[in-house]
Amino acid sequence: MEINADFWNDKYTNNETGWDLKSPSTPLKEYIDQIQNKNIKILIPGCGNAYEAEYLLEQGFTAITLVDISEVVVEKINQKFKNNPNIKVIHQDFFELDGQFDLILEQTFFCALPPNLRQDYSIKVNQLLAKDGKLVGVMFNRDFGNDFPPFGGNKTEYETYFNDYFDFKVMEKCYNSIPPRAENELFINLKKKPK
């Protein structure tokens, strides 16, 4: 099984989206709530149904970029956010994306990538972040034993991917996960290292 645009298009077309919370994740909502500057450039890779983007808009953020490889998803969120000048929706492979962002929000994108792409993810996030930029989000803190998404992991493993590029402000168990994910998520707040 190849995990590509067709794979994700099929998942969304057939409504096989068990990871979909139908709302923004609580850890990300609480992080977003404390951000003062509403004009920072924010990227949400593998944005899916973009609940976090909806929440960002409700909170007054003005520079949100969404990227997803699935044209099914992109068509849906283009309709959701049409004519909104504060959101840019891009249909593209994350690894081919260009730009500079102050904040990258991670919510179920990293765990959807095959594990052999995790180091590449760390490198790409580092490239996309502006000086003092942050990667903030939620990662699974358990092994699923799958050969398909979601792919789990743990703090020790994740540290190996991010140590070279980021200062770890926070990487700890989420205290505010939704009940089905309690004890199985890590909240991360990683700041890009100076060059």
Automatic annotation (TrEMBL):
Q: Which PROSITE patterns match?
A: SAM_MT_TPMT
Gene Ontology biological process: methylation
Pfam families given for it? Answer: TPMT
Q: Which UniProt keywords apply?
A: Methyltransferase, Phosphoprotein, S-adenosyl-L-methionine, Transferase
InterPro entries the record matches: SAM-dependent_MTases_sf (IPR029063), TPMT (IPR008854)
Q: Which GO terms describe its molecular function?
A: S-adenosylmethionine-dependent methyltransferase activity
The protein's name is Thiopurine S-methyltransferase (TPMT)
Taxonomy, top ranks, is:
Bacteria, Pseudomonadati, Bacteroidota, Flavobacteriia, Flavobacteriales
